[in-house]
Amino acid sequence: MQRRRPRRLAGWAGGLLVRLVVLAMLLPAATAAAQPAPAAPGPLPQRELVIATRNTPPFSMKAASGEWEGISIDLWRRVAQGLGLRFRFVEYDTVQAVIEAVARGEVDAAAAALTVTAARRQIMDFTQPFFATGLGVAVARDNGATAWLPVFRTFLSLSFLQGVLILLGIVLSVGILIWLFERRQNPPYGGRALQGFIAGAWWSAVAMTQAGAAQDGPRSLPGRILAVIWMVASVVTIAVFIAGITSTLTTQRLQGLVRNAADLRTLRVGAVEGSSTIDFLKSQRIAHDGVNRLDLGLRALREGRVDAFVYDRPLMGWTIQQDFPELDLLPITLDSQNYAIALPPENSIRVALDVALLETLRSEWWQQTRFRYLGRDTAP
């Protein structure tokens, strides 16, 4: 009986080992089968596709020949030709009209300057983004009183007030020490404490600013030593203070009226209705006047009916360069935006378009296309 037990135990252990080996071999296959398979490209339509677009240079615009061109248009042509798709362009007047046409399925895609937003994503589909940028701010070129508004704002800022208070504190501290050293030997500093303190503070201020010959200078040895130290130190103090103020004022003039979104709350702001700019301004609680087209908004800015205009940076930069040279595009970027090709909610071509887009965006052709329309200053 004792010999049979080890044999039974050995047989049971061997069977268990075999089961474990088999389970280990089958587990990866079972795990792979449980994972969802990646979406496969659907069948590409054989009919002619209808592609919505609108005039938004440099992404989509009509050439003199009547043919559409631009960054988005050229990219769509490249991708569609690679997939063997037939298509034709249909022009819409406003971005809202393009969005509604895509959302209702009246068109098969939209190639223009459409940014991906949460609100739009709820009613339509998008391909992989092909261009990243942000909102730009345009203002009228500095002139008259408007050019000095940033300077006045600097003088009213908390940092400027702090600098003045620190400088005033140093002057008063030196004045108190001069009064304490001179009150028993120098008549102007004697008498009542307030009178002596005022005399010391006045001498300290005159010596620092070198506004004139400092009268009733110190006579005691400690007072004269302090006076020499203060007159030398005050030259450095004033130089540093003036240099700091000059640098700040120069920076404010260069930056202009707007440095960030908060500065827009004090200005009359314009924006294109139906664009993603409106969503951003509302989220920042910035009051704004809406216009139907970018050129109308820039015209209002030029005529002084608004103080700043906010819109997609590359679109506004192109339009200002072409038609509004008297306006300036500030060197700041608000928010962040991704441009993509818009598709109806239920479509069968997004996966195929994404694959073709990802291959195209890594090509030398895409780098040359961006450079041709935007030059070297392009977003990644």
From TrEMBL:
Keywords per UniProt: Glycoprotein, Ion channel, Ion transport, Membrane, Receptor, Signal, Transmembrane, Transmembrane helix, Transport
Transmembrane segments: 160-181, 193-213, 225-249
Superkingdom of origin: Bacteria
Segments forming domain Ionotropic glutamate receptor C-terminal: 48-368
Membrane topology note: Multi-pass membrane protein
Chain segments annotated as coiled-coil in the UniProt record: none
Leader sequence residues: 1-34
Location of this chain's protein in the cell: Membrane
Matching SUPFAM superfamilies: Periplasmic binding protein-like II (SSF53850), Voltage-gated potassium channels (SSF81324)
Ranges for domain Solute-binding protein family 3/N-terminal: 48-377
Entries under Pfam families matching the protein: Lig_chan, SBP_bac_3
PANTHER family, per the entry: IONOTROPIC GLUTAMATE RECEPTOR
Name of the protein in its database record: Transporter substrate-binding domain-containing protein
Species of origin: Teichococcus globiformis
Higher taxonomy: Bacteria, Pseudomonadati, Pseudomonadota, Alphaproteobacteria, Acetobacterales
